[in-house]
Write a structure and sequence with these properties.
mainly beta, Neuraminidase
Length: 410
Amino acid sequence: MAASAAPSAQAQLRIEISGVGSNQIPIAVAGFANETVAPAQISAIIKADLARSGAFNVIDAGVIADAGNIDLGAYKAKGADALVIGTVDCLADGRYDVRYQLLDTVKPGKLSQLDQALAPRFTRLSAHKIADDVYFKLTGNRGAFSTRIAYVKQQGRSYQLMVADADGESEQLALRSNEPIISPSWSPDGAKVAYVSFEQQKPVVYVHNLVTGQRKVVANEKGSNSAPAWAPDGGKLAVALSKDDHYQVYVVNADGSDLRRVSNGAGIDTEPQWSADGKHIYFTSDRSGGPQIYRMGARGGDASRVTFGGSHNISPRLSPDGKTLAYISRRDGNYQLYAMDLTSGQEQRLSDSTDDQYPSFAPNGKYILYATQAGGRESLAIVSVDGRVKQRVTTQAGQIREPAWGPFVP
């Protein structure tokens, strides 16, 4: 077993896009002046981010060297409602000065601008932040291009907990083990990941600091310890333990102290997830005869059933605004991703595959990452919450599963 934050030498993830969003925004993105001096091509990353979102129709604008002499009307005539331009300069201290402007071609003027002086290793991140800014200014929703994802990659007998940018690049190894790793869950500050490892020949819950590489056991009770989920305040986790002969939901401090049971079902209670406000815990239970999703207070008490469509609903995940529940439902023999509006109770099937698992919301609530199988290979997929935009995330080496989308970080 090894733990590190070193870049992976293996192939990066590859994302294939199908479908587009409704009412795409036409936007022209120009090559940044002098961007070849930087380790990453800023404009290409911005274009890829915006195109992948499905919210934009990206138009190539060539390279604009003179930002003070732009005919915005010409870009409007090409169909663009907005134009992205920028420059990259190498500073004397080895950093790069990345500047960008977002221009309105309809009512000519400047919508936004950023100026970032950063170390070479952060040039890709600067491009993602620019794409985030464009997404926010033109859609009104926060972009998630600069966030990270975690997932488990299996190659033979080797299990690897990986962390990568949301576009699958900059892949890093957090943990390697000869025993399975499952159920990664991000802390709200994005600095730690909780997960379950079988290296002690049983499932044990760990919290792993991604900055230092240090980790701590937070649940190693008799029987199985599984399904960690961070509370919104980052101070506690909900876990599922079988210490009392059958799975029940417990809450434990992030340092492993003050373990207390909060569910009291006669059957199996597992897969806990906190509500966005931290006042409730959603979980899977078979107390009605088959697995369904329930909700109870964060301190326990009576539970109310949430899912009624279909006889088998598992893996609850709450959107960041607390309005939508994502879950896996088995219907007609297929395990597929569904989303429910918690106010109306209306369901929508979001996937067309037949063996989906482990949904995880993007921190802006606009996309869901999940694991799936196709052609005998395990891979990841991303779908917009309206079901219109779909992405397939694959790798040349190994199987990938157990995805978790990280939070917004400063």
